[in-house]
Amino acid sequence: MKKVVLFNIFSHVGLSILVSSILSCHSGYDHQKYWVPIDPPKAHYQIDGRIDLSDKVIEGFESITFKNNSSRNISVVAVDWSISEHSLIEVNVNGKPLPLLNTQENPPISTPLLYALPKPVSSGSKVKLEIKFSLSASNLPGEDMEEIKLRGDWYPRLWWDGLRTHDSFEAKLDIPNGYALAISGRLNKETGYYENKGVKTFGVYLGKGLETEEREVEDVLITALFTEKGSDCARLCLDTAVDVVRFYKNWFGFYPFKFLYIVPGGTDPWGGYPFASGIVVIHGQEKFETEPLLHWKWITAHEIGHQYWGEYVMDDDTPWLWIGMGIYADRGYTIFRNLGMEKHSGLMNRYLDGVRNHYDTTVDIPPAQLKKIEFDHNNIVVHGKGYSIISALECVLGNEAFENIYKRCLEDYGGKRLGYKEFWRVCEDESGENLSWFFEQWVRSNKYLSYQIISQESIKERDAYISTIKVECTGSLKMPVPVKAVFEDGSNEIKYTNRLLNINYLKFESMSKLKEAIVDPDNKLAMIKDSLFVPPEELSEIISQLPWTGAGEDALRYFERARESKLDNMESWFKLGLTLFDGVYYKESFDAFQWIADELNSPEIYRFIALIWMGHMKDLLDNREEALKYYKESLKYDTGRTMRHDQYGMRINRQWVEERIKTPFIRMKE
Question: pTM for this structure?
Answer without folding.
Answer: 0.81
